[in-house]
Amino acid sequence: MSAISGLDIALWDIKGKQLGVPVYTLLGGKVREKVSVYGWIGGDRPSDVLEQAKERKAQGFTKVKMNAIESIGWLDSPDLLDATVERVKQVRSIGLDVGLDFHGRLHKAMAKQLASKLAPYGPLFIEEPLLPGHVDELKTLYQQTTIPIALGERLFTRLDVKKYFESGCIDIIQPDISHAGGISETRKIAIMAEAYDIAVAPHCPLGPLAFAASLQIALSSPNFVVCEMSWKMHYNQGHDLLSYVKNKEAFKVSEGMIDALTTPGLGVEIDEDLVRQAAKENGNFSWRNPVWRGPDGAIREW
Q1: Model pTM greater than 0.85?
Q2: Which end of the chain is more exposed for a tag (fewer CB within 10 A), N or C?
Q3: Quick check: is 234 catalytic?
Q4: Backbone angles phi, psi at 270, to 5 degrees
Q5: Cα–Cα distance between 143 and 207 in angstroms, integer?
Q6: Cα 42–chain centre separation
């Protein structure tokens, strides 16, 4: 329900009859006919990215994203960064745009080196080059690179993003609709971002409801640029974005984009029987992120 928020109520009249409008109609109407999306390659420890990039291109994507770096120390060998540059060169060589997710794994000593090495190869953006909270440090990095800087998955409200907007240290905000108070708050973040000439690129390594809700924001926000799509993402095990969707064609990727959803509500039809069956079989399964440690045993950012 968090991805739907209070807007779900507006899709029903007082007699309980479903209204025949998409959510984006309630947000002021659509400002585009298609939504740009990107897929993931490389996994947590990026490898074989060229072959995966070729697969994504064949699937209809024109943009991909990958983790920039594996486990790395606070101050580590600069040689570790060369492999990242080589992966970007490989993906760019087949005509795909690529975003790099630093994942907050680097601290500023290494982040500024990697940003400098990547600049000649034109990444689409670098994401979370530093962990949230380092606003002044991020502003310094912003002034040192020409690559667009993105972040936002760990920020949850307008108040959280406000200091980043005012400091002028990011180009792209990435609210996660399941974290940021649903459609209503995410929409307000997008509107606020537009006033600072900041683009919106929803963070969404999630399921079909969250993805469809993110598409409603994308369709109604002038400053939207691209949405994350979890189809065939490396985290998916035993199920995928389309596993529980009846109208799978609604999420078809063509020339890097998905057509505007046109059916009432979120525009996605869920196979509820399959969801109940999976819940029964999996019980109280709860995903936990891995714990990474360096060679000295110290915990590192995953």
Answers
A1: yes
A2: N
A3: no
A4: -95, 140
A5: 36
A6: 15
Residue 227's alpha-carbon distances to 10, 30, 230, 298, in angstroms, are 25, 16, 10, 34
**Cβ contact 42:52 at 8 Å:** yes
- Dump pLDDT digits (tens) for 61-87: 999 999 999 899 999 999 999 999 999
Q: What is the CATH number of the domain that holds 265?
A: 3.20.20.120
Kindly list the distances between the CA atom of residue 213 and the CA atoms of 36, 79, 255, 256, 294, in Å, as whole numbers in the listed order. 15, 41, 22, 19, 38
**Amino acid letter, residue 87:** R
Instruction: Provide the domain count of the chain.
Output: 1
Taking 50 as the threshold, does the pLDDT of residue 6 lie above it?
Answer: no
Active-site option among 103, 107, 134, 239: 103
Strands 299-300 and 292-293: antiparallel
The closest of 22, 16, 2 to 265, measured between CA atoms, is 22
Question: How does DSSP classify residue 265?
Answer: B
Domain around 280: 5-300
Active-site residue, selected from the candidate residues 134, 203, 234, 239: 203
Q: Is 259 exposed, middle or buried (0-12, 13-18, 19+ CB in 10 A)?
A: middle
User: Is the Cα torsion angle 149, 153, 155, 158 positive or negative in sign?
Assistant: positive
Task: Evaluate whether 64 touches 42 at the Cβ level (below 8 Å).
Answer: no
Place of tokens 């046109």: 262
pLDDT tier at 278, thresholds 50, 70, 90: confident
User: Token pair of 210, please?
Assistant: 């969250």
The rounded distance, in Å, linking the Cα atoms of 289 and 302 is 8
End-to-end CA distance of the chain: give it in Å, rounded.
28
Exposure string of 212-245, with b = 16+ CB inside 10 Å and e = fewer, is bbbbbbbbbbebbbbbbbbbbbbeeeeeebbebb
Task: Determine contact, residues 4/183, Cβ cutoff 8 Å.
Answer: yes
Tokens representing 41 are 């390659």
Catalytic status, residue 203: yes
At 240, list the tokens: 């995928």
